[in-house]
Design brief:
Blueprint: H1 18-22, E1 26-31, H2 37-47, E2 51-56, H3 60-66, H4 78-85, E3 90-93, H5 96-102, E4 105-108, H6 128-140, E5 145-149, H7 157-165, E6 174-178, H8 188-193, E7 198-202, H9 206-219, E8 228-232, H10 233-263, H11 268-276, H12 297-310, H13 314-341, E9 350-354, H14 369-379, E10 383-387, H15 392-398, E11 406-408, H16 412-416, E12 421-424, H17 436-442, E13 448-451
Parallel strand pairs: 1-2, 1-4, 2-3, 4-5, 5-6, 7-8, 9-10, 9-12, 10-11, 12-13
Helix pairs in contact: 2-4, 10-12, 10-13, 12-13, 13-14
Bound molecules: uridine-5'-diphosphate-xylopyranose and adenosine-5'-diphosphate.
Length: 482
Amino acid sequence: MYCKVIPAIPAHVWPPDNENLLKFKKNILCIGAGYVGGPTMAMIASKCPDYRVTVVDINPERINAWNSHELPVYEPGLDKIIKKTRGKNLFFSNNIEKAITENDIIFVSVHTPTKTFGEGAGKAPDLQYWEKTARQILEYSKSSKIVIEKSTLPVKTAAAMEKILAPAKGKIKFEVLSNPEFLAEGTAINDLENPDRVLIGSRDTKNGLKARQELVNIYSRWVPKEKIITTNTWSSELSKLVSNAFLAQRVSSINSISALCEKTEADVSEVAKAVGMDSRIGSKFLQAGIGFGGSCFKKDILHLAYLCEYYGLPEVAAYWESVVKMNEYQQQRFIANILSSMFNTLAGKKICVFGFAFKANTGDTRESPAIYITRKLLAEQAYVTISDPKALKNAALDLADIEGNIIYEEDPYKAAAGCHAIAILTDWNIYKNLDFRKIYKSMIKPAFLFDGRNIVDHAKCCLLYTSPSPRDRTRSRMPSSA
Ligand code: UDX
Ligand code: ADP
């Protein structure tokens, strides 16, 4: 999960002294140093060298990691930007009180997981981290601030935030903006540098528009003006949920078709290509496989469905919930395919998992389909070897509660040796171009390949069974020699 070694900043750099503060045109703070807060602030610091950007977190280990040789987040290209900015105009700190006091523009980028308890459990967002942050801002502010929601939040959260901030003393005023982040993990730096759009929601009041302009000024340092769109706060909040819901819906739609393809002579890759070439539909997010993971899609669709239920729209809620159900079905189908292909028993068999991250180019495993699939394999009493270039530490944490036979091995050739089957669960490039002939020789026969991301060129692959591509059903036994 860690990225390349970059020099740690000397301990004395934070906190900067007041003289240092005055050197900068603006002082920006981000509360929450996660996958969104860290890279986004690094990009702002890099594009606005005259702004001082501080990132704080309640988790001291996270901050220490941001200040160390090994960043807490693996993201291609991030290390370069951190190297350029850290200790110059980008600072990571645990001192939340001091940071709130000193900064005028505050991004809030704390996580909003799905509630696991009480009313709305399993659907509604858990807003405790966000509310705590709002109360901290109120408590420590000694001057007026612009507060910007970066985290994905339910519609009307800004209104709730305004209510919490309303009791501010004297002349202190807070203006709350919504500025959802659309970066995808693994491509975060490019997404931040060349966004399709930047969305800023504000109140249509004099102060609201003034605050909005402050944010426009930051982004217009590198984002073309026509790509910066402004809306009312609620439209901005809802657009983020809807964008993620639409993307996830495409994945579930093509996955539903993959099930039909497997029953017929159609090939889902061919169907996706033919359908995606219609410019009205487009080719992206039509890659069939074991389904979507990540911290956003499931959570945001469930938020959306919960909102619909709250506003008395059960049919709309059910429509969006079906996107999540289709995702779960796809993973269940994948396991069922493995079982039936391997003679309905996995007990004592060795299965090698290629990829544990929820997608390629990240070490993040949140909601990764690999978690569900590996747990199912272990429940069938299989022996599992997990391989991944960046996610092995997170995989071990995800499976820490399990008493099973698990081995972690980064090298895919070593991981596959002696196994009965390989299951590709993440679309890492390295898995596309492996020497499968060599791998086949090292495996127990008949050897199986379950291509959960549909990424291997099956014509070149001598392993026998692949899924979900139906063409390969005809080759569902491995050749006796490679
Ligand atoms: C998503 C949104 O893309 C991003 O705009 C938002 O800010 C956060 O949520 P992310 O979760 O990082 O980003 O990754 P994304 O690239 O959207 O992939 C999500 C999941 O869908 C992954 O598990 C991926 O493997 C899967 N996926 C994606 C498919 O199964 N098929 C596809 O065709 C595309
Ligand atoms: P995301 O993917 O949205 O960035 P992460 O979980 O990676 O989510 O990051 C959210 C960060 O917010 C975590 O590092 C967490 O410790 C931090 N956080 C949560 N609540 C607070 C708080 N009240 N003050 C400061 N940081 C917080």
